[in-house]
Write a structure and sequence with these properties.
9 strands; 11 helices; alpha/beta; 11% strand
Amino acid sequence: MAFSPHALRTRGVTLNRRVFRGMLSRAGNGFMEFAEQWLGEELDAKIARIHLERNEVGVDPFGFDPEVARYGLAFAAFLHRAYFRTEVHGIQHVPHGRVLIVANHSGQLPLDAVLLTAALLLDAEPPRFARSMVEKWTATLPFISFLYPRLGQVVGAQDNARRLLEQESTLLVFPEGVDGIAKTYAERYQLQSFGLGFMRLALETRTPIVPVAIVGGEEQYISIANFRKLAQILRMPALPLVPQLFLGMPLPLPTKYRMHFGAPMRFSGPSDDDDASIADKVGRVRSAIDVLLREGLKQRQSIFW
């Protein structure tokens, strides 16, 4: 069942939430002990500086639960600092207040969003808790539909995004959508078509856009094909063929991630302008990300370090 924030007021869902927390606590205690020894008090200090509006059961209007999210953020921090050893460039460009972080999408699994969230929390000043706009189909998945809101993920509807920006939030947007993560290795770092919705949202809410190029995700899982027709039959957004999964290597390769934040871009004009005018503005953002991508690829000397 898809998540509804109003259902949190019912006793049944509150009990489910307690059970869910208990499951995560039992499963995550060992990892959290390691994470706390490694991160010290840094993670909790960053989380404590994030402003949240909570209801009577301790979550925000979208279902974000800091106690549950702490496990997810610790895992994200581990991937960011230890596994992928992310280099972050230009994060000082992120302005205060509401902002749309617009990035290229890659990697078969949305680990780029996880690492971008970790970077904005751990490396930005002040720390930012970024909310990701996830595909609507995730709200139909068992367990995921319950987990994602607790971790701060929000179904990518315009109304949800507008409300978050009105609360001065940081939103992550991947305008390539599923096409970005479904690319084959031969298509790596080739930007796919961008949707127009994020630009209309930026214009309506007068929100600056920070372009971000992420280098490293395209090599973590090597996809050699995408079975689009079979994916449609199975009602899946994509069905990539990743040989390393069949070779008993489920973990992503420990490629070195590099993130390059560009200067904020501000646009003006009516949000209901014709598609051609909006597409022109979107093209400028896409070009900015592409320039950052080419520079990042040129600078790196190896996939792994």
